[in-house]
Amino acid sequence: MEGQAVSDALAVLACALGWLLWSVLVGWLAHRLPPRALDHDTWLTGRRPWPESRSGFEKRLAIRRWKSLLPDAGTAFPGGVAKNSLVGRDRATLQRLLAETRRAELVHLALWPFWIVTALWLPPAGVLINLVFATLSNLPCLWLQRYNHLRVERALQGRVRRPGEG
Q: Where does the signal sequence lie (predicted)?
C-alpha cells in the first residue's frame, strides 16, 4: 500500500510538473511570435460559424462579473504586455490589444491538449481529471479573449458602447 501512495504521489507530481513546463513552453513560444503573425485572424482566431456577439458573451456567460478574477500572464516574459494596460482608444493601441487577444487565444488553445499526454502515465480516471482541469482552466480564458476580441473589433470599427449602454 505504501508503494501505491508513492506511485500516486509521483503521478500527481508528474502532472503538476508537466502542466507547468508545458505552460511555460507554450507561453514562451507565443511570446516569440512575430507581430505579423498576430496582425490578422486565422481559422483559429477568426469568427466562428455559430452566431457570436459581445452581448451574447455578456448575457449568457456574465463575463463582466468574473473577468477580473482571471490572471493575465502577458508580462510573464520580458517585453510582454498586460492586456489591461492597453487602455487607449487610439488605433495603434487597439490593434496591439487585438493582437494580444489573438496571442492569448492561441496560448489557451495550445495548452488544453496536454491532458492527452497524461495518458502516458495515468489510469483513465486520472486522464479524465486532467481533461476536466484543462477545460476548466482554459475555457473561461478562451471565452474572455473572444469577448475582448469582439469588443476591440467594434472599437476599431468605431462602434464602441460604453458600459451600461444598450
A: none
Nearest to 144 by CA among 74, 39, 43, 91: 74
Copy the grid coordinates of residue 105.
487565444
* Spatial separation of the C-alpha atoms in residues 156 and 161, rounded to whole Å: 12
- Mean pLDDT (10-residue bins), the chain, 166 residues: 70 95 96 93 77 67 86 82 73 90 95 96 95 96 90 80 48
Q: Using an 8 Å Cβ cutoff, are 82 and 75 in contact?
A: yes
DSSP 118: G
Nearest to 107 by CA among 33, 15, 40, 17: 33
Q: Alpha-carbon distance 154 to 141, whole Å? A: 20
Measured in residues, the chain has a length of 166
Q: Is 69 helix (H, G, I), strand (E, B) or coil?
A: helix
